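RECORD TYPE: inverse folding
INPUT: structure tokens
STRUCTURE:
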């Protein structure tokens, strides 16, 4: 029986604020990295079965709370959270929000409704959010955030 253990190392290339390098940037990085690996490989310092995988997480990736929140602050986010009820049990809710602020001291964040179709009145065709909805805010502790991802408009 042959045992083979796999060791993975991940390297992240963030050249753009939203973490989406172009194909050209990935090709250039990959070529430079491969060149350097070949140089080091000749000395025998790295295994010969090393592989390089280049991938992009895409827009539907989960965001890290609180690390990625500030970075995507201007973009609408699909937020799934646990709402604490006064009665028995808590409920899981979701919505499309914009991040207004992150409060590191209290480990919470303030959200406002994003101006997207899901948050608008279906009868008010083409109109933006009402004043009441624009002023609405939701403060959530990090622990109540179940899933946060970038909002993708399917229109």
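DESIGNED SEQUENCE:
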């Amino acid at each position: 029986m042959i045992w083979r253990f796999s060791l993975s190392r991940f390297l992240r290339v963030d050249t753009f604020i939203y973490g989406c390098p172009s194909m050209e940037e990935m090709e250039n990085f990959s070529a430079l990295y491969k060149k350097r690996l070949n140089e080091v490989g000749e000395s025998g310092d790295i295994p010969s079965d090393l592989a390089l995988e280049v991938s992009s997480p895409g827009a539907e990736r989960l965001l890290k709370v609180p690390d990625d929140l500030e970075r995507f602050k201007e973009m609408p986010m699909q937020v799934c959270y646990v709402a604490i009820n006064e009665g028995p049990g808590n409920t899981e809710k979701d919505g499309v929000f914009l991040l207004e602020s992150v409060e590191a001291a209290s480990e919470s964040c303030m959200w406002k409704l994003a101006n997207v179709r899901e948050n608008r009145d279906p009868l008010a065709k083409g109109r933006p959010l009402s004043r009441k909805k624009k002023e609405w805010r939701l403060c959530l502790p990090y622990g109540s955030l179940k899933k946060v991802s970038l909002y993708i408009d399917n229109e």
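NOTES: The CA atoms of residues 103 and 109 lie 6 Å apart.
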